[in-house]
Amino acid sequence: MIDAKLIHPQIxxxxxxxGHGGTILIPDGxxxxxxxxxxxxxxxxxxLAPGIVSVTDVLEAVLSVTPVExxxxxxxxxxxEPSIYAEFRKLLPDDVELTPLERFTFYDEAKKExxxxxxxxxxxxxxxxxxxxxxxxxxxxxxxx
Length: 145
Hints:
By secondary structure, the protein is an alpha/beta fold. The chain has a 6-stranded mixed sheet. Helix 2 runs parallel beside helix 3. The longest helix is centred in the first third of the chain and has 9 residues.
């Protein structure tokens, strides 16, 4: 039994196998889950129904157990900022900025070998895709360099 915010065994296993610099893709329900990410990445399907589970629900759970050093999002073609970006900023650590990427550049980044986990959601908001880069777990203060 796990007493934490994130209890999904497949996600925990994938995160436990990942390392610094690996990436985690949490896409909306319109994202091409199979063809738009590294074919070797672990895939977890939480897209139960439209709107269930949301990208922000998954992001909050993942952030509760994984350090993140970077976050990239899919930019709209017209340059307008999707409202979900504000929600991402509230959830991410203060030192992590959102980096918008053009749609096909975003796909290219998600297809790289360092993408180790794709968590499919039922998110209905468009441009609600986020690609997280796993950070470093700092050593205890008495073991710091």
